[in-house]
Structures are given as C-alpha cells and as structure tokens.
C-alpha cells in the first residue's frame, strides 16, 4: 500500500525556524526543537525553505541542516536558495534527501536536468509556485524531477481540471480506472498508482488536507501550519485514517486477545533505547494503554499504584516515542524500542537498572558497541582536534584523501604505538559511517566507498579508522590511540 505523507514545512533564517501565526505575523522558533518534535510526532518528512539573503546566511543554514539531519529520523526536503548546481550539492551533502527547484526561474529547468543526471532524479523535486505551471508537469518529469510540489494558494477550477486530466492520463497508462477520481472534491476516489507524484502545499486544515489526499495524483500534503495551530502529525493521521485515507500509523500485527496476560489482566513491557539497546525500564500495559500507545505513538502504561493510565512523560516531559513493539515467543511480554527524552527513571537516572548486584569482569566484545565508541571518538576529533591524530589529518586533507583511504590507499597499523607481533593484536580495516560532508550529507552519514566523480555515491561507506581485532583473545585496546 502506498501511504499518503504528511510533511510539515517552515522557513530557516538566521538559525531560527520561521513560521506565520494565524494572523500571518512572522514568528521565529528554535529550529532544532521544532524539527525534533515533528520527527517524534508522526511527520513522514520535513520541508525546510532556506530564507537566507546572503552567502553567510546560506552557509549558516547549511550548518543547521547538517545538525537537523543528524538529530531527526525523518527525511528532509530542502530548497529556496539555489543559484547554481553547487547549491544543490551543498543541500544534499548537508543531509537533505531531496532538493526542490523553483520552475518559475527558467534557468532552473536546465539545472533540474543537470542535477538529476548527477545526483539521481529521486533527489530532485520541482516546485510549481502557481497553478499555471501544472500544464508543464510532464516536461518537468522528463527533465528529471521525480516529485512536483504544487502551491495551492491560487487554485482555480481550471487547475483542478488539469490535475484531473493528468490523473486520468496516468491511470490509462497504468491500465487503471480513474473514474472514481474525476474531481478533487470526491471523498473516496480510487487510489491508483501514478508515475507522477505530487505533493500539495496546504494549510493543514483537516477537511482541506483530506480532500487533497483523496486525489490519486497527490502523494502527500505539505503542511504550512500556523505557529499557533496543533502540530501533532500522528493525531492528524488518525483523523485521516478514520476517513479511509491510507497513512502510516502504528497497527498491531497480533490482536490483544492473543496476548497472555497476568492475573491482573496486564502484560509486562521491557523498554529499550532504540539506538543503543540500553534497557531503560519495565512497566505494565492493559488493553487501553496498548491501544493508546498505538494511537499516539507515545508509550502509555497502566499504573498499578494509581490504577489508571500513565502517559510516560506527561508531567516530566520525558516522553518515550515508539520506534517498534515486539511480542516474545510466549506472547506474554512486550519489547518496546523507543526514543527516550531525558531520564527514564524517576530518580533522574537514564535507566532504572543502575544498582549493581553481582558482576564478573569481562571484555565487552560486542562489535556494535566498539563501532559506536569509535564513531563518538571520531566525532570528538572533528569537534576537538588533537595534535598527531590521523583522523584529524584526514579531515584536514578533505574528502579526496578520505576517499583515497577508503579505496585502500595504504593502511596504518597501530597498537599503543607498536607494530603488531605474530599472534598478537591484528589491525583490520572496518568500514563505518564517518562524520564528514558527503553526498548523503549527514554528519555521521554513510559515505562514498567507491565515490565516482559523477557525484553518485556507490558503496556509501568510508574506511577511516582501523579497529583492533584480537587473534586469540579479547584484549582491550584504547580506541583513542587509533584515532
């Protein structure tokens, strides 16, 4: 099933999010907090308009986009200040999944072709600022734009008729019958597959959003929400879902009736951090709490002491945003992976499990843990350069040197400053994400491996640091020596 997307949008200027209130007055907000909120609360993607009016402001926005891309889990669509192909590249390197170009500037038509050839059509969108441009949608698609962003502020009957004609032509191409979607105002048209995807900019009002998303050509609604309007995209999705519009929400693959409950009618829930797998806490759910969790995307439990529902974080602000829910083999315990805000424990501890009971010393050889530790050291080297660091040497030399290293241009062996001896610690290259500016753009993105000069990322990983693997035992090595 193709889900219809909800994509909140806002501007970025001087390092702040720029929105309008219901009276159309400009309002600025913390852009990182706003982006994280949307990511946590059901947004499928986020669109950011670069409103900078100088080169310095543009570079500041690029830096902000890098930070947002590293923090949030949803894709970014970015555009607004594209004057040359280099600007498209900068947005993509900063972490944008796609860049939109305004078709009212005829120079951008050549750039759509050039950018789609270089970076891939899936990364290039066309922004149509007026209804008159809809007649050229097929031209923009042939140039390489994969998605059309339609501004609906000047909607006319002619615009709607053109949109319907495109949908009908598309349905004919796909052998589908679009007779149920002959006007945009139909409430239950056939959701037919289309080679042309359009996102429509709208106010976010439920009736208007639903009307647009019912159209077979519209794959998503870009929500130009007033700053003083409700922002919870998950709640908006539930309202759309009730209208039979396919949106991406949490749905249980196994019915509650199949769960094995304890004598109180509850099921225990183990909660883990979705990135580190750290066990955070344990609580209980009844059926109402389970359904509330699925509906809101925020962990909700049943408090045995208060005998009532308990939305985690409702008073403290330490919400737990659902990433996945799994049931164990006996159907009697749920494992929840979440993004934890702040501390999970009422004591202020990140995890409720912090009191040692018994322990035997052992070497943590979990490769994912080593991977994570090395990555954080690399991040630290970038933010706090260290004299003599080989990682800093590579950062200073730039992407070409890093890519040369990734292709095997010489490997250095370290073990506390010594060459490895027979049967001792061996140095091996490990391909891992590295915090640098590259074609997928995220700091900490998967980059390059075999990065061709066309700009197409192929292997999308870089070898930048050597990890010590032990031939015969699990000796610990100071990772800081390696970097």
TrEMBL record:
What residue spans carry the region label Disordered? 406-430
Amino-acid positions noted as binding Mg(2+) in the UniProt annotation, renumbered to this chain: 328, 330, 332
Q: Which cofactor does it need?
A: Mg(2+); Zn(2+)
Named in its record, the pathway it takes part in is: Amino-acid biosynthesis; L-histidine biosynthesis; L-histidine from 5-phospho-alpha-D-ribose 1-diphosphate: step 2/9; Amino-acid biosynthesis; L-histidine biosynthesis; L-histidine from 5-phospho-alpha-D-ribose 1-diphosphate: step 3/9
- What is any one GO biological process for this UniProt entry? L-histidine biosynthetic process
Q: Name one Pfam family in it.
A: His_biosynth
Report biased composition (Basic and acidic residues) as residue ranges: 406-418
Listed binding positions for Zn(2+) are 329, 345, 352
Domain Phosphoribosyl-AMP cyclohydrolase residues, every copy: 281-354
Q: How is the cofactor bound?
A: Binds 1 Mg(2+) ion per subunit.
E.C. designation(s): 3.5.4.19
Which InterPro entries does its entry note?
Aldolase_TIM (IPR013785), His_biosynth (IPR006062), HisE (IPR008179), PRA-CH (IPR026660), PRib_AMP_CycHydrolase_dom (IPR002496), PRib_AMP_CycHydrolase_sf (IPR038019), RibuloseP-bd_barrel (IPR011060)
Record's function text: Catalyzes the hydrolysis of the adenine ring of phosphoribosyl-AMP.
- This protein is called Phosphoribosyl-AMP cyclohydrolase
Taxonomic source organism: Hungatella hathewayi WAL-18680
């Amino acid at each position: 099933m193709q889900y219809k997307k909800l994509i909140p949008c806002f501007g970025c200027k001087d390092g702040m999010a720029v929105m309008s209130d219901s009276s159309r007055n400009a309002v600025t907000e913390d852009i990182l907090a706003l982006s994280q909120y949307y990511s946590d609360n059901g947004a499928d993607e986020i669109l950011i308009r670069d409103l900078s009016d100088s080169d310095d402001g543009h570079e500041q926005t690029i830096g902000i986009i890098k930070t947002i891309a590293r923090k949030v889990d949803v894709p970014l669509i970015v555009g607004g200040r594209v004057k040359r192909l280099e600007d498209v590249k900068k947005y993509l390197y900063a972490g944008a999944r796609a860049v939109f170009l305004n078709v009212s500037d005829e120079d951008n038509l050549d750039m759509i072709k050039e950018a789609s050839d270089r970076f891939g059509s899936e990364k290039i969108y066309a922004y149509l600022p007026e209804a008159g441009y809809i007649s050229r949608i097929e031209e923009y698609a042939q140039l390489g734009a994969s998605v059309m962003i339609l501004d609906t502020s000047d909607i006319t009957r002619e615009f709607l008729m053109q949109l319907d004609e495109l949908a009908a032509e598309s349905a004919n191409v796909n052998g589908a019958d679009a007779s149920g979607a002959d006007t945009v105002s139909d409430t239950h048209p056939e959701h037919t597959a289309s080679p042309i995807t359009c996102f429509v900019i709208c106010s976010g009002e439920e009736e208007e959003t639903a009307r647009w998303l019912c159209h077979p050509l519209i794959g998503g609604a870009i929500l130009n929400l007033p700053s003083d309007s409700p922002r919870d995209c998950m709640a908006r999705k539930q309202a759309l879902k009730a209208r039979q519009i396919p949106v991406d929400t949490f749905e249980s693959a196994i019915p509650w009736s199949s769960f094995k409950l304890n004598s109180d009618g509850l099921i225990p829930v183990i909660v883990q951090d979705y990135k580190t797998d750290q066990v955070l806490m344990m609580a209980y759910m009844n059926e109402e709490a389970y359904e509330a969790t699925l509906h809101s995307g925020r962990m909700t439990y049943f408090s045995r002491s208060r005998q009532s529902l308990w939305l985690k974080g409702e008073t403290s602000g330490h919400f737990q945003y659902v990433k996945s829910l799994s049931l164990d083999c006996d159907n009697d315990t749920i494992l929840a992976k979440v993004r934890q805000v702040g501390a999970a424990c009422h004591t202020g501890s990140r995890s409720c499990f912090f009191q040692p009971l018994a322990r035997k010393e052992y070497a943590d050889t979990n490769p994912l843990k080593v991977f994570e530790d090395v990555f954080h050291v690399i991040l630290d080297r970038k933010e706090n350069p260290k004299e003599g660091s080989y990682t800093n040497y590579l950062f200073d030399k730039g992407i070409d040197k890093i890519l040369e290293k990734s292709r095997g241009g010489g490997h250095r062996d370290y073990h506390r400053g010594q060459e490895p001896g027979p049967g001792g610690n061996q140095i091996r290259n490990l391909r891992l994400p590295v915090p640098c500016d590259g074609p997928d753009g995220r700091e900490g993105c998967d980059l390059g491996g075999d990065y061709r000069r066309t700009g197409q990322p192929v292997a999308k990983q870089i070898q930048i640091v050597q990890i010590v693997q032990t031939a015969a035992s699990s000796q610990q090595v100071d990772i800081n020596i390696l970097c």
